[in-house]
Amino acid sequence: MTPGRGVKVVVAPDKFRGSLTAREVCTAVERGVLRVRPAASVVSVPVADGSTVDAALASGWRAVSLDTSGANGQPVRATYAIDGDTALVELAEVCGLAAIAATDRRPLTATTYGLGTLIAAALDQGVRRLVLALGGSASIDGEAGMLQALGVGLHDEYGRDLPPGGAALTALASVDLTGLDLRMHDVEVIVASDVDNPLLGPAGAAACFGPQKGASPGDIEQLESGLRRFSEVLEAGGTRLAVAGAATAPGAGAAGGTAYGAMVVLGARLEPGIALVLDLVGFPQVLSGADLVVTGEGSIDAQTLRGKVPVGVAYAAAQKAVPVVAVAGRCLLAAEDLAAVGIKAVYALLDIEPDPVRSLTEADRLLEDLAVQLALEQLPA
Predict the structure, then answer these.
(1) Closest CA to 298 of 10, 2, 20
(2) Helix axis angle, 363-378 relative to 22-36, nearest 10°?
(3) Is the same domain home to 191 and 268?
(4) pLDDT value of residue 101
(5) What is the pLDDT of residue 105?
(6) Contacts of 293 (CB under 8 A, 6+ apart)
(7) How many folded domains does the chain comprise?
(8) Range(s) of the domain holding residue 188
């Protein structure tokens, strides 16, 4: 066939949970497109929990790496990104669930302490704006560990420091802010998250996300009690931390309640994660001259419509009048639902490989084949 003119394709997916990272999705799509359009320019912008910093670095941000501790206290090498006086710190980079084997998940004691050390390191760089990209967390500690790493004292009734984890919060008696890193007072903190769950209750951090982090029903009750106690002490009447309705605010339950702690103690504001991240990495500029955007995630379903990556990418592309298609492991939405959010079509692995096991184990090859198909059908001649 005639390869046609050089076209520009922007690939901006989420991960395919259980099979491919966002970066691997980008690579497979690029291979497929180039098989039929070798003159094409393919620009990858991986957007997922654990890939936000990657996207920033690819767009010119500076990497800063350091040794710190993960959710279980294990040594980890983590990286954050800096652009001017803004730092982008990603929770999944240091306290992420993906880095912990299913047999080693410890929801009662998992901590965000390492996230706090990353933030302190960013403060050492003189940043004045801090963006916390949430998602993919292993912990349900309400950001208690992060606050402790920044100098906040969390004490039991005997004045002892609480041990790591959300379960320990049931013993919280007092909060001492006198040790909070003074530099935090001069930093604007923004929490980027696409989760709208509150801190507590059946849709809260423990009940909704506990099972995927390894929490049993008994663990969930304990974690719920810990988060409730945490909010009671932080929001006690008369304290400067009494942020009205913070525990019930949409998004407070993000990343095991990390958003809640940031709101109440650090004065953070919550913003839709995908929109903010796309703006930070210069996605509108990347779209310049593009003929097609390919987005996607493992399962395109009702949750997708709640502001997840494909919808955010489609909205941004619509502002530049660039058509959007998606790739997925499976698609459970009707064509009219997709059209309503700006997605022309979805190419799903299960459409070409109905065996769900093979669609996972052979996802890389299958996705490349799908990319060939979409390039033939969607790119201009």
Answers:
(1) 20
(2) 50
(3) yes
(4) 86
(5) 94
(6) 9, 10, 11, 12, 287, 313, 314, 317, 322, 323, 324, 325
(7) 2
(8) 52-274
Per-position b or e across 166-188, b if 16+ CB within 10 A of its CB: bbbbbbbeebeeeebeebbeebe
pLDDT value at position 204?
A: 94
Whether 241 and 235 have beta carbons less than 8 Å apart is answered as yes
* Judgement on whether residues 122 and 245 belong to the same structural domain of the protein: yes
pLDDT at 2 over 50: no
CA-closest candidate to residue 276, choices 316, 319, 322: 316
Assess whether 234 and 89 both reside in one domain: yes
Q: Does 251 share its domain with 114?
A: yes
Q: What distance in Å separates the CA atoms of residue 149 and residue 174, rounded to the nearest whole number? A: 17
Radius of gyration of the chain (CA): 21
Residue 151's nearest CA partner among 126, 122, 127, 176 is 176
Q: Are 141 and 110 in contact (CB under 8 A)?
A: yes
Average pLDDT (277-281) is: 86
Strand partners, 129: 86, 188
Closest CA to 51 of 21, 25, 29: 21
Determine, yes or no, domain membership for 2. Answer: no
State residue 238's pLDDT score. Answer: 46
**pLDDT tens-digit series, residues 183-197:** 999 999 999 988 889
119 in the same domain as 208? yes
Percent of the chain exceeding pLDDT 90 equals 74
Quick one: 249 and 178 in the same domain?
yes
Looking at the fold, whether 213 and 294 belong to one and the same domain comes out as: no
**CA dist 337 to 26, 93, 301, 308, 344, Å?**
24, 33, 10, 14, 10
Q: Give the per-residue pLDDT at 241.
A: 58
